[in-house]
Amino acid sequence: MPRPISATISVSSLSHNLHAVATQLEQACTHSRSVRPNIWAVIKANAYGHGIDQAVRGFAQADGLAMLDLNEAIRCRELGWTKPILLLERFFDPDDIPVLNGYRLTTTLHCQEQLDMLAAARPAQPLDAFVKLNVGMNRLGFSEENYPGAYRQALDAQHRGVLKLVGKMSHFARADDDPETTRQQLAVFNRVSQGLPGRFSVCNSAATLTPGLWATVPCEEEQWVRPGICLYGSSPFADRTAAQLGLRPAMTLAARLISVRELPQGAGVGYGHTFTAPGPMRIGIVACGYADGYPRHAGTGTPVTVDGVPTRLVGRVSMDMLAVDLTSVPQAHVNSPVVLWGEGGPTVDEVAQAAGTIGYELLCAVAPRVPRTIVD
User: Fold this and answer.
1) How distant, in Å, are the alpha carbons of 11, 33, 292, 300 from that of 229?
2) Which SS3 state, helix, strand or coil, does residue 189 take?
3) Over 90: is that where the pLDDT of 36 sits?
4) pTM for the full model?
5) Residue 48 is a catalytic residue
6) Which among 44, 290, 294, 360 is annotated as catalytic?
7) Catalytic residue among 147, 151, 168, 271
8) In a 10 Å sphere around its CB, with 0-12 CB exposed, 13-18 middle and 19+ buried, how is residue 4 labelled?
């Protein structure tokens, strides 16, 4: 019998979350009298651990898909995706350019080396591209001083038939927690890109769900937004839950109790005895550990649900097991169901907060050894 742990992926929840984001965009457009931006559904990191195949189905109504990995982009085409695909990091070698061309992939341009590679390229068909401006993230993108010249080089490549559609792009560093900084970064983008022709894309999940940001970008050109984590049922905000945003969990990590133990007062639990029983108590051992992708740094008090009852993790997470407090679950027994996060249990954001991390990491970290169950 297989080990009793699984990650259930809900394709319908992926579709629901995309629809929820699109609906919020449409409502904001009604108030601002603007045109709804096109949506790149971001499916990087194997669709945040949910699987490329499931993402292509769940996000069928998106206007495009965005990711980092070239092989994942090719997989989308093999699955029948015909709409645009954006590579968020770029191509890395001149030999990549014919591949992008063959699979009709849109590339990000963020450094001079890429422009130099394009200058020597002779693709069979012109490529679509977004030229990235660094407005304060300080990872990728041309500086404010170099951006106009880089954009002109891209337009020259367009005139030579190397590029087809050329657009403007940036990325906000603090859209989730600092509106003022984000407004300043947006002002930089508007100023530097003013007068440069082409569509644009500046908003990730948090900015997409903040209409006061994207709706203030000049709308004479086509706009694309890039929601990511929100499409998987996790909130990009610390002060707004996924439920408040109308989102549903698309992944449920569940297991079962494989042991139930009675502890006397003072008994330690797990490696290092980081938890000791304050009195006589029952604990349950769950078939899930850090080798399954559950965070080892999650400590006592991290929420978990056993047999439909909220309770807590106790002690240190082991490689293959963790312990839970059964004080509030007297009916629990071996084989009782456990929800680590997702439908019927704590949200992935609640677990992440208790573990001192973010929901993104937990969703992406679920190990390949955990069986996936796909639900439509």
Assistant:
1) 15, 27, 21, 26
2) helix
3) no
4) 0.94
5) no
6) 44
7) 271
8) middle
